[in-house]
# Entry
Amino acid sequence: MKAYIFPGQGAQFPGMGHELYQNSAPARELFAQANEILGFTITDVMFSGTEEALKQTKVTQPAIFLHSVVLALVTHGLAPGMVAGHSLGEFSALVAARALSFADGLRLVAIRASAMQRACELNPSTMAAVLGLDDATVENCCAQVNAQGPTVVAANYNCPGQLVISGTFAGVEQAGELLKAAGAKRVLPLPVGGAFHSPLMEPARTELAAAIEATQFQAPICPIYQNVDARPHQAVAQIKANLVAQLTAPVRWTQTVEQMLADGATEFIECGPGKVLQGLVKKVNKDAITASL
# Structure
């Protein structure tokens, strides 16, 4: 069974989506619709904006969603057997699985991005990638720092030996020192706007929860494997609850790929800019078959 996977923040690059726009009239219609829904010309930023402009959370998330969904629906017309998305990519996956309309998905992504941006401004914070340690060691180091006051948590379980930690600047810095002492090969600061998938995103929860509750969802045509528990879901109420919980909960990508393989995934097809998720899948299982749309 083919598993379609959708990237999250970090997959953006200047010029993204321009080729799709040039080569497909239906794609151009969705890009135009996105400009109208968002209230600004996101295509200008995507096609000719700077790398710095694309890093703004309020731009990055709609841009990646737009690129992924146009690629999946317009260019290929997917009828997937199973889907999953990394963080933001979960919204793209829900549109591909027909649980959300394109317009509703984009509106939710825009609300989520704005709410997260405000949370970042309220609580200045950051993230860092940790290479070469097992999950338990990273979790224990974070727990030691939290016991002293600063906030830092394991936020993205990307693949064996690669976790991302998230928290206050002091928390991430202190955890980084402990992790290096514990044998981490590298602790790399990430160019992000804040501590995503951590308790510091709590201020964004109320706004996103209200928006999700007000949005019409349909039962997806296939299971979606959600970040918070790496399990397949098709019940609308549970999908909504998991989307809200995802703001402050870790992305369990390693566990998601393992579960999809156990449930019969034979090929992982990345829908969106870049090939980051394919690389992570290969690190979870070197024999997994991967491809891009």
Notes: The radius of gyration is 18 Å. DSSP finds 13 helices and ten strands in the chain. The mean pLDDT is 94. Strands lie at 2-6, 82-85, 125-131, 152-159, 162-168, 186-189, 224-225, 232-233, 267-270, 290-292.
